[in-house]
Amino acid sequence: MSDMYVKEVYRGQGVGSEVMVQLCAFADEYNMDIRCIPSSDDDGSGDERLILFYKRYGFEVSMNIHTKKKRSISKIKTVESELLC
Fold it and tell me: What are the residue ranges of helices labelled H in 1-85?
């Protein structure tokens, strides 16, 4: 899956949280890894907000797109890594 986001009009209503709960439960059930690359704005201005959001669900920041952690947030933005989230 790639390019998942909550439209601005629905933010702050728990929509993103519910999606993350379901996504993490699915990944845990099937022993899958999740890697997210925060890219809220073209200039990256919302990245820190998204990183804090992901951390609430057990994600850890990694500077390596090939990390083997169960849930990771990649700080490296490349075409290859964009396809992994």
Answer: 15-29, 47-55, 79-82
Query: What backbone torsions phi and psi does residue 19 show, to the nearest 5 degrees?
Result: -60, -45
Q: Is the pTM of this model over 0.70?
A: no
pLDDT in tens, 3-58: 788 888 998 999 999 998 998 898 888 888 888 877 766 555 677 888 888 889 88
84 vs 12: CA distance, rounded Å:
26
Q: What is the dihedral of CA 72, 75, 79, 85, to 10 degrees?
A: 30
Q: Residue 36's beta-bridge partner residues?
A: 73
- Contact between 6 and 53 under an 8 Å Cβ cutoff? The reply is no
